[in-house]
Amino acid sequence: MSFDRVNYDPKFKPVKGIYEDRLRQFISKGGDYRDLNLPKFYDKQRIVLDQNHVKLTWYQVPFESGSSPVSPDKRPSWESIIKADKNNELKFQNASINQPFGPSWSTTWFKVELNIPQDWVDSGEQLIFQFDCSNEGVVIDPNTLNPQTAFSGNGERTEYLLPKQKNGQYSFYIETGNNGMFGCGEGSTINPPDNNRYFHLQKAAIVWPDWNARGLYIDFWMLGDAARELPDDSWQKNRARTIANKCMDLFDPMDRASVLKCREYIHSEYFDKFSDDDQVYSQGDPNIFTTVYGIGNCHIDTAWLWPFAETRRKIVRSWSSQCTLMDEYPEYQFVASQAQQFKWLLEDHPDFFNKVLVPKVQQSQFFPIGGSWVENDTNIPSGESLARQFFLGQRFFLKYFGIKSDVFWLPDTFGYSSQIPQLCKLSGIDKFLTQKLSWNNINSFPHSTFNWAGIDGSQLLTHMPPGNTYTADSHFGDVLRTSRQNKSSEFYGAGLMLYGKGDGGGGPTREMLEKMRRIRSMSNRNGNVIPKLQVGTNVDGFYQDVLKRTNNGNDLPTWCGELYFEFHRGTYTSQAQTKRLMRLSEVKLHDVEWLATKASILCPDSFKYPVEKLSELWENTLLCQFHDVLPGSCIEIVYKYEAIPMLQKVVNECDNLLEHIQTVLKGNTESSLTVSTLSWQENLGSNVQAPIVPNIEESTDNYTISNGVLNVSVNKNLGTITSIKDINTGTEYIDIENGRNKNGANQFVIFDDKPLSWQAWDTELYSVNQFKYLTDIEEVKVLPTTDGVCGIEVIVKVSEDCKIRTKITLPTDKAKLDETTVDITTTVENWNARNKFLKVEFPVNIRNDTASYETQFGIMKRPTHYNTSWDVAKFEVCHHKFADYSEYTKGVSILNNCKYGFSTHGNLMRLSLLRSPKAPDAHADMGTHEIKYSIYPHKGQLSYKTVRLAHELNYNQKFRISKEFGSQFNNIIRIIGDENVILSNIKRGEDDVIINSPYALKPENTNSMVVRVYESLGGESHAKLITNLPLQRVVKVDNLELEVLEEVNFSKTPSNDDFNIPITLRAFEIASYKFIF
Ligand SMILES: [Zn+2]
């Protein structure tokens, strides 16, 4: 070959834009040229529903309109349906294309009988059954009852690869749920559901596919993406465009054989020879760092736009599809979190769980991950709840898989408690994965890989996938973004790409796995301007790589304290009833464990520690802490039929247990005494002092009540508290001279609440300045003094049919005088607002840069100013039982029994009470609500007194036990020493043989009690635990009660039989001691 002397055929330089745009034509499934391009050859042959080769019949499970869509009769077991059909008890009718099925939330069964033409079978090629009924479905083998694969509807996941068999006869069932992947939202997915939607049968066909054409589709798609998305100045981009165009030139729509020629051409020019093979991931230059690790997952929201009942079916659909994919793709690895979901699967489909899923776990393809019971909210659950999320989650994983997770997997949640690092550390977890923080709408979080340190200093190696999604489609662009958007690449340049359909479940598809093979192949061949993508390295391998390349994590930047999520601040308040029941459930479970532990020790013959019942109640409580349920972002049926009845049942069953335990402890005898479940007030004795007589003075403007400690003035016109004065010192705690609220404390205020989107989730910054004080007062009256309290009742008119009744009372009981609180009970009657936010304000005579908010086992300090955009973002924050605003010499705490939203700015403290979003639950928070809160004015700074008073407001139930048990009961566990150390919970050791726990892992023939304490205010502290139990050994244990962290010394008190256990706690330390006796 030689260079031509004369040019007779001039060539032009292709115009980049035009040649790039042309590429879309080749694989476009619509448009003008479909039949002139590759899609023409996708099928070799196809037979659509004809009731001969493809026979499809259907059976509708009865569904009475208006009835509960989650009751078990609406979702019969597979076994019962298949058995009934075999007995000819069900009427299956012929189905037709476009036929509607429904209504929403009902179940339709299909029976599929296929009769494949012999020449198709003889080809030996993989054949397909295609199905799309716009809803979610699962293929069930009628012989084994095992799920095979799932259909997602509306074009997503529509193919079942038929197992090869010689006679071409197939018979199987499809169970479909009449909802989409994202529920049945009307108009928009996050709107309230249309409960009368019907789902149309779009596709039912057998297909003999052209696998070469399908292969070329993926090849060309990735090549075209490289041509479009690689940097303009890279030769790889230009070459990809040239090759793709030449491929189109080679293609002949009249000649199927040209497909193979196109494939061979592309492969010879741009891919390595392993592009269709899992070996592709071991090719290429090993000296080049991997920049993207692909991890398969499917985020299944445990309830959201669908109920728990549907999630149970989403799990089996999603996971069975994944197990099938694993057989085809050996490199494929998939992670799934949430012990609850595994438990449901085990209950509903034990054979699939044991015979299919467990082997996949053993073969390191299916990875249970996360360690928590559900992917929980971390703002609102109590400290003990978070501890139990890990306790039950990890113990479940250990029991069924023999492993525990060392990664807390929480891609999607609405805020991150500053105690997560410590609780994880105590639960065998030292790594964290999340993603949602990238949704911040004010400040961009600065790291992708970093060390997150909690308030006690414990740290987690943390990664946020740089692609900013946990549901990537494994597009070329997803891989590029994961590589390019890495904010920590000066320390560590790689990131995780979490791929797979998610939120509504689903998971990775064949197409995603094929695309990733091509992307890696292109990188092997053309260098790493195409990121080096690795599939087949698990999450642990990724974190190990981080440690290896960052000097064991020491080189990484640190983020201290909470990871405040700058979004979804309305979730501290939405769905008030669920939040109130959650607080109550947590309190009741604490009380039951407190009493049951002691009763099981005092009356071992007549009382058995109800561990099975407690596990069940905890499981249900933890389930309702899922990150859409407790925050309030689910549709109405979740609250109405599931979460609220479930939590109400927890409360009722706890009450039954408490009643029973009191009977065991002979609380009904004459000689009984009253006990509490708080260590500092356990034995309340019987020496109740006569209350003092309150003094109520009336002036022109005010009623002033005095109990000898405080003077509290209530304005007769506004019903607000205009003064709280310490009688001895003259200190005034209320400020009505300055700031925006000059009306007084307990002033109700309604804010406009129309966020940009996400109604149940968000309340936006601009709402803060659009408000109206409620000053239409119907009545202000003095209440009769009874039961050791005196007070004033105020009735505030909100609208024609909505009122607020608020009772402001002072204790006159002498025992309570040294820590006097102004107690308020507010009943909002018939709250019926639309997009309004009700709060209550307290203008206080305090000035400080920060306020303190109770969080799990500690406090968080947050700014009371708007200096920086990071401070502005915290215009509404989460708290638990109290918020405190203090100067050096004085302060005010606001305590509550069921609320979580708060803000403190300037001289104004503000407790958030009720919202009224209209989506996704159109009736959220409507109705009547009772809320208790207290104002605690105090000398000096925040102290243990606030912590204790907040406990007393919540753990206020008193119990009667026989005097005979009195001192023994109290002396089982006591604590003395620094008062900021709180003895929070006691329970029986989970592995005590005698209690026979379903979560026991290493049964021990001893008696034990676990005692949880924490340091509540942030300072090293000393205390002594005292017990009358015949101690053999005391150990400090981890949160799972599995690992001994420390042997603890103890000594006998010379004067009696008690044992002393001296303890020292770091600032904000959570410690669990196991007493073995
Ligand atoms: Zn989610």
Automatic annotation (TrEMBL):
Its EC number is 3.2.1.24. CDD domains: GH38N_AMII_ScAms1_like. The keyword Magnesium does not apply. It is an enzyme of class 3 (hydrolase). InterPro entries: Ams1-like_N (IPR054723), Gal_mutarotase_sf_dom (IPR011013), GH38_C (IPR041147), Glyco_hydro/deAcase_b/a-brl (IPR011330), Glyco_hydro_38_C (IPR011682), Glyco_hydro_38_cen (IPR015341), Glyco_hydro_38_cen_sf (IPR037094), Glyco_hydro_38_N (IPR000602). Transmembrane segments: none annotated. Belongs to the glycosyl hydrolase 38 family. This is Alpha-mannosidase. It comes from Naumovozyma castellii (Yeast). The gene is NCAS0D00720.
